[in-house]
Amino acid sequence: MNTMTLWHITGWEFAALACAALLVGFSKTAVSGANTVSLAIFAAVLPARASTGVLLPVLIAGDVLAVLTYRRHAHWPTLWKLFPAVAVGVVAGTLFLMWADDGIVRTSIGAILLLMAGVTVWRRRTADAEEEPDTVASRTGRVKARSYGVLGGFTTMVANAGGPVMSMYLLSAGFRKLGFLGTSAFFFLIVNVSKVPFSVGLGLIDGRSLLLDAALVAFVVPGAFLGKWAVSRINQQLFERLVIAATVVGGVQLLIR
Predict the structure, then answer these.
(1) Closest CA to 29 of 173, 232, 166
(2) Residue 178 to residues 32, 45, 143, 144, 228: CA-CA distances in angstroms?
(3) How far is it, in rounded angstroms, from Cα 54 to Cα 212?
(4) How far apart are CA 179 and CA 106, in angstroms?
(5) Residue 135, Cβ neighbours under 10 Å: how many?
(6) 178 and 75 Cβ atoms separated by less than 8 Å
(7) Both ends of the chain: CA-CA distance in Å?
(8) pTM: predicted TM-score of the whole model, two decimal places
(9) Is 130 left (phi over 0), alpha (psi -120 to 50) or beta?
(10) pLDDT tens digits, residue range 205-242?
(11) Is the four-CA dihedral 226, 228, 230, 236 of positive or negative sign?
(12) Distance between CA atoms of 14 and 172, rounded to whole angstroms?
C-alpha cells in the first residue's frame, strides 16, 4: 500500500507529520517535552487513537539517537526510583485506552496538552524559588518520584505526553543540562519500548502504521542533529514560550474539533 494513502493522507498532511517527526528528533536532543507539539499534529492529522500508535516508533527512534548522544550522563539511581511507579501509570493508561473511544481519546489528548502547558508554566515560575531540590534518597524525593512516575506513565501511554511531566520532575530534582538530557533519554527509551506490546495488543501498531513510520523516521535524524547543534546555543526561555503557546493552540484545537 502506498504510504501517502494511509488513512487518506494528503501531501500537505504528510508534510505536517514530517515536520512533527523533525521536531521529535530536535526535542530528544535539545528540549525534552517540546514534542507535545508533535503529538498535537499527529492527533490532528490522524485518528486520535491511531496517532498514538504511529507516533510511538517515531519517538523510539528519537530516543535511540538521544541515548547515543548523551549515554554517559544518565543518573541511574533516579531511573530505578521512577520505573515501578511508571509501570503502574502505563497499566492504568492501557486500561483507559481499552475503554475510551476515539472522541474521548482526542478530548483527553487535548486536555493533557493543556495540563502539560500549565505544568510547564508553573515549573518555570517555581524553579528559581527552589533552593534545595529534593533528592531521590529523601522521603519527600521518593514521594515526588512516585507521584510523577504514575502521572508520567499514564500520560505517556494515553497520549505519548510524558515529556513535560518528567521534565518538571528532573528539573525540580536539580539536574543540570547534560544530566537532564542523559537521564531523560534512557528513561523514555526504556518506557517507550515497554509500551510497544501494549500498543500492539490494543491494535494501535500494525503493518500500516509501521509503513508510515518507516517514511517518517527519516525526518527524525536531521532533527536530532539539529538539536545536538542547538542545545548549547538555543535561547531556552524564548523557545519554551513558543512551545507552550503551540501546545495550548494544539490542545484547544483538539478539544473543539
Answers:
(1) 232
(2) 12, 34, 25, 22, 11
(3) 7
(4) 34
(5) 16
(6) no
(7) 29
(8) 0.78
(9) beta
(10) 988 899 999 999 999 999 999 988 887 776 666 666 66
(11) positive
(12) 37
Q: Give 257's DSSP letter.
A: -
Grid cell digits, residue 55: 507516533
Concatenate the DSSP letters of all residues of 93-150 into one string. HHHHHHH--HHHHHHHHHHHHHHHHHHHHHHHHHHTT-SSPPPTTSHHHHHHHHHHHH
Of 212, 217, 222, 223, the C-alpha closest to 13 is 212
Report the distance separating Cα 165 and Cα 148, nearest Å. 7
Please report, for residues 27, 38, 73, 234, the alpha-carbon distance to residue 239 in angstroms, rounded to integers and kept in the order given: 11, 15, 23, 8
Is residue 109 within 8 A of residue 257, CB to CB? The reply is no
Residues 6+ apart with CB under 8 A from 239: 31, 34
pLDDT in tens, 98-146: 888 877 877 877 787 787 777 767 766 765 554 444 455 556 666 777 8
Residue the block writes with cell 538555543:
234
Backbone dihedral region of 126: left (phi > 0), alpha (psi from -120 to 50 degrees) or beta? alpha
Stronger pLDDT, 249 or 74, i.e. the higher one = 74
Question: What is the spatial distance between Cα 69 and Cα 155, in angstroms, rounded to a whole number?
Answer: 25
User: Under a CB-based contact definition with an 8 Å cutoff, are residues 164 and 119 in contact?
Assistant: yes
Q: Alpha helices of 4-101 — where are they, by DSSP H?
A: 11-29, 36-45, 48-70, 76-99
User: Which among 138, 141, 161 is positioned nearest to 151, based on CA atoms?
Assistant: 161
Q: How far apart are CA 167 and CA 169, in angstroms?
A: 5
Locus of grid cell 535511540: 64
**Conformation bin of residue 135: beta by default, left when phi > 0, alpha when psi is -120 to 50:** beta
